[in-house]
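Hi C.,

You asked whether I'd gotten around to modeling the 153-residue construct. I have! Everything is below, sequence then structure, no commentary in between.
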Amino acid sequence: MGFFTKKKFTFTSPVKGKLIPLEEVKDEVFASGMMGSGFAINPEEGEIYAPYDATIKAVFPTNHAYGLVNNTLETLIHIGIDTVNLNGTGFSSYVNQGNSIQQNNKLGSFDIDYIVSKGLNPVVIIIFPNKEKVKINKLHTNVDKNQIIEIEF
């Protein structure tokens, strides 16, 4: 028994904003789930925090995305749609690949106004590439940075 038991994981919001379903992200690759299951947050502030204790698996050279991993979960935090084209302008990272981080540590920052001024969407996309299905409670509600978001997988 127990093969079909859902697991709950305590995950804190990496950014302040409004939780939205992945399907509402205006990027087909993310919205279709091709990268994995997850959710997104329309950000109100340009700071990214660690949602759980982990190791930094990757920091993209343009500082617009972070890969995190621990014994339970692997996560991609991607800031914006097509923001890779900004070549790092408007983004700062405070961590490096291989760093061990604690929940709520600041990972980086991004300039929402700059991203928008370039005609891009600053939505923060959270992907769980190794989880087939993830359930997020309280979609379409506002969350503060570091606020607990209960997820099931």
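If it helps when you're writing up: The chain has two helices and 14 strands.

Thanks,
B.
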